[in-house]
Design brief:
By secondary structure, this protein is mainly alpha-helical. It has one domain: Orthogonal Bundle (Helix Hairpins). It has 5 helices and no strands. It is found in: Cell membrane; Membrane. This is NADH-quinone oxidoreductase subunit K. It is a multi-pass membrane protein. Pfam families: Oxidored_q2. Its EC number is 7.1.1.-.
């Protein structure tokens, strides 16, 4: 068997997965696209392992580890998507940007008021005292 056949198939799978990650808005479809990309890598690992006739079958062993990591990733990813869907009512990736805490958060403004820097007039009085003592 030629190495070109599985390599071309792996490139096609990886490109479809990459398109899915970049173009999709639904978080579940993004996770499925990541799985496609990982399966393309697994196909390459097994194809090169067979082509090189490795006695230890390290490509196949690494593929098993990759499958285990992908299963853990999809389990954790689906749990996060489910939690976000319960809170937001949507699993769109574009709406997840709102979950990050930023300066527009009203709770942060209340906490930040106590730790703000002094006003410019107070600053100048403090700097004048520091210069006077120095």
């Amino acid at each position: 068997m030629h190495l070109a056949y599985p390599a071309v198939l792996a490139v096609l799978l990886f490109c479809v997965g990459l398109y899915g990650v970049l173009a999709r808005r639904n978080a579940i479809l993004v996770l499925m696209s990541v799985e496609l990309m990982l399966n393309a890598v697994n196909l390459n690992l097994v194809a090169f392992d067979v082509w090189l006739r490795d006695a230890l079958h390290s490509g196949q062993a690494l593929t098993l580890f990759t499958i285990a990591i992908a299963a853990a990733e999809i389990g954790i990813g689906l749990a996060i998507v489910l939690a976000v869907y319960r809170n937001r009512g949507s699993s769109a990736v574009d709406e997840l940007r709102d979950t990050a805490e930023g300066p527009d958060d009203p709770e942060d403004d209340a906490e930040g008021a106590a730790t703000e820097e002094p006003a410019p007039a107070e600053k100048s009085q403090k700097s004048q005292k520091a210069e006077a003592t120095a």
